User: Fold this.
Amino acid sequence: MILNRKIQPAYQDIKKINIINPTKIKLENNVVAHFIDAGTQEIVKIDIIFEAGSWLQPKPPIASATNEMLMEGTSNFSSQQIAEKLDYYGAFIQPQPTKDFASLSLFTLKKYLPETIKILEDIIKSPSFPQHELTNYVNKKKQQFIIEMEKVSTIARRAFNEQLFGTNHPYGKNVQLEDYDSLTREALFDFHKKHYIPQNAKIIVTGKIDDSVVQMIDQHFGNKNWETNQEIKNSQNNSPHPLIKEKIIQKKNAKQSAVRIGIRMPTQPHPDFIKLTILNTILGGYFGSRLMKNIREEKGYTYGIGSALISLQNAGLLIIVSEVGANYAKETLAEIFKEINRLKEEKISNEELILVKNYMMGDFLRSFDGPFALSESYRSIIDFDLTPGYFNRAIEAIKTITPEEILQLTNQYLVEENFVTTIAGKYE
Amino acid sequence: MITFEKFTLENRLKIIVHQDTSTPIVAFNLLYNVGSRDEMPNKTGFAHLFEHLMFEGSKNIPSFDTALQMAGGENNAFTNNDITNYYITLPKENIETAFWLESDRMFSLDFSEKKLSIQKKIVIEEYNQRYLNQPYGDASLLLKPLAYKVHPYQWPTIGKDISHIKNATLQDVKDFFLHHYAPNNAILSIAGNVTTDEIKSLAKKWFGPIEKREIFKPKIQKEPQQKEPRFMQVERDVPFDAIYKAYHMSAKNHPDYYVADLISDILSNGKSARLYQKLVKDKQLFSDINAYITGDMDEGLFMVAGKLMKGISMDEGEQAIEHELNKLKNSIVDDAEIEKVKNKYESVFQFAHISALNKAMDLAYQELLGDAEKINHDVKKFRAVTKQDIQRVATNIFHPNNSSTLHYLSKGNS
Assistant:
């Protein structure tokens, strides 16, 4: 038999994705811990997530500084001792400050969990924010900030947030160089006391989980002795802001321009959100997307272009991001809007939609593969107090969405006058 | 222990199978034994440009990506000094699609002037995005030709110069394919819930009919021993001064390679490491500083790279680095410190080998180095390094005559 290389071997559609429900345990102090037993390696990852993002900070960059300075000394150990211990056990703690949350993730071999979880507990409960460490932190951060501001992508991202949200909005207010100098220990202590408290915490544990792991979580983070406080939710100004439609920031000698285009969207709990993720995939969410095909593969204006649908707690947004050859910025903008309009005017072909559906189902499968992917997937629903049923609804939506719905969603949500555009680099 | 089986087809394609029943995804990794070290000095950047063309359709399949996405798959590739590595992850049930796709592009590519000209443009934008339009982005482009005078590691994977990309012709590209892309110059590794029997029959079916080809490898000249310190200074539009130092070190298969890797961990792996604690935190001379090895198959480089704090002179920075490197030569590391870096290596190894894809990639690479089984001895080899080894190898590497130094000055500062 001669092999026919022209015909793709038979493939199956993904029918079922094994969505395991994490075991949810409410600890004595009412902290909820989610346990996901997965993988074959003897490792454990613990995420402790606080509502302590920049949304709640009195002034930038207090939220991120508090989060990152937790590692820099406690009432029991110096910064160096903490680093020595973690390195000795081959463990990592990753602070991650975002707009809404601030988390700490511990990656550890399971055999060393009894030791490493103590360090995690210590830095969360008893930070001492030593002055000399803060001074050092501020000096380093200022240099990093100045270097970052040399990148067209950074310049564009900052301007874009201001254009979309306004400089008084917690999502639109950017940190400035001089803000670092006004950071004080008192501000960090105060922010920590208010927000790094049990009723503000969620825990996700993944890896090799057994009773001993559950017990350790309970012992170190479930205890009523964990000092608490009246929870304070600052009310923030989330009112709509007049958009600044277009901003061009020239940078001398730039070889490329960073392009950023975006629009406000509903947040994740909204019934249309899942379908909008499909629309986003078609537009710029995968390698075969309309934007990649046109602007990279046909025109060669860029090494890469993509779009993302992002849900924060208090706003959603769709952004299109690229760095393009300095002479191509104008053409790229025109092509991006051409692609958006094409989605509004022409129904997507069944062929293309099936491709996107199959790709997204594969992606879904990958996002439930292994302990780290699982905890990241669950994090995305836990942040919004959604239940795992959300994933089943997402799968259902991917399977059933029609070309008509895509057309309708594009017209409803991607309204041209609501887009803001930022270009940093060279633009005539 | 990562268990696997391996076999070789008649056309000399090597195949490694690792069974991991815990995942619904299968990883399919195809390594070609060709990298930028196999390029001609006047035609650099080819291995990487060629990687781009591999996605532009093959003889029987117009779109690689579309066919793969239909089967729920995802893929990418990378090129470095030594290898070009293509990888796919897809639902286990659909593994045959991966065989079909990868075998067709090994069989024959569908080249055209138009495809070549678009990919040249894209690679030029990649060059801009990664190197020329980033602060300090060209440092490695400057340092490599300082450290290497003969060996092809002197040029970066992206190419020595944009003109080499611009001038690439269709004939160049076709030659490159015939010289390097062949079953007898590749290693396929598969990790997932599969059996060796099933992989054997698929491999025979799809790769079996591809004939062996004659491989053309330019003879790589060994870099002669460096006899004196080398130095270069540039001025750029960056906010702070930076120091880059490169020292020649052993090839990947040399026992001292592990020692050098461990030395780089003592200096720079984790926040408790020496360079960070001493030079960033205690003395506050640098805002960041790193030591790392380039990890090449032939004799590679041990790098130290740091950005100076404002107001600190190059001399102060240099002396502080030298002081730390000399300590490794002049005194013995204590037990706790060596134990720490070994523990850390073991733990990083565990974390790095969780996913089927990483296991597949590493198996193929270890096979290229000589034997996939090496994957199970890595940690042991690290454990075996002694304090005396560290002192001996540090003394060899950190000799002034073995150093190339780049002073990267901020225009505003000078």
